[in-house]
Amino acid sequence: MEDHIKEALDIVKAQAGVRPMTDEEITSMVKKLSKSILAISEGKENIAAGDEAIDPQKAIKEKSITCLVCGKAFKLITKRHLATHGLTVEEYLERFGYKKGTALVSKALRKARKRKMQEMKLWERKGVKKKKK
Predict the structure, then answer these.
(1) Dihedral (C-alpha) 26, 31, 32, 38: value to the nearest 10 degrees?
(2) What single-letter DSSP state applies at residue 106?
(3) DSSP 8-state assignment for residue 102
(4) All structural domains of the chain with their residue ranges
(5) What number does CATH give the domain 51-121?
(6) Which value, in Å, is the radius of gyration of the alpha carbons in the chain?
(7) DSSP for 46-91?
(8) Tens digits of per-residue pLDDT, 38-94?
(9) pTM of the model
(10) Residues 46 and 36: beta-carbon distance below 8 Å
(11) What region does 41 belong to: left with phi over 0, alpha with psi -120 to 50, or beta?
(12) Whole-angstrom Cα distance, residue 91 to residue 87?
């Protein structure tokens, strides 16, 4: 096995030990890292994560969401992170073709938040009496 692939596998193995990853995430990360390691070892410029086009619809996964600017995976993409790229949430959504108001969170986190809100039943205000007309 070539050295750059072995090094990429070691890095991804360590990452998978820290957080749960899908097969797709593991494969993608190994490919990306092995290309970068090979480019560095050959003295070429490092391939930026943004150079590989990621389909915006595939960026939102079950357990993570991938930033389409830098290629890093998160549970949610914050305003603070986007500010490091000089973008607002609205600019990010427009740039990558998302619908206005799309939540930049993983599918699992979105489902967990929805369940929590349903459990809280905020629409059923306790102690508030309705006025009679």
Answers:
(1) 140
(2) -
(3) -
(4) 1-47, 51-121
(5) 1.10.10.1550
(6) 20
(7) PPPGGGS---HHHHB-SS-EE-TTT--EESB--HHHHHHTT--HHH
(8) 777 776 644 444 445 678 888 999 999 999 988 899 999 999 999 999 999 999 999
(9) 0.54
(10) yes
(11) alpha
(12) 6
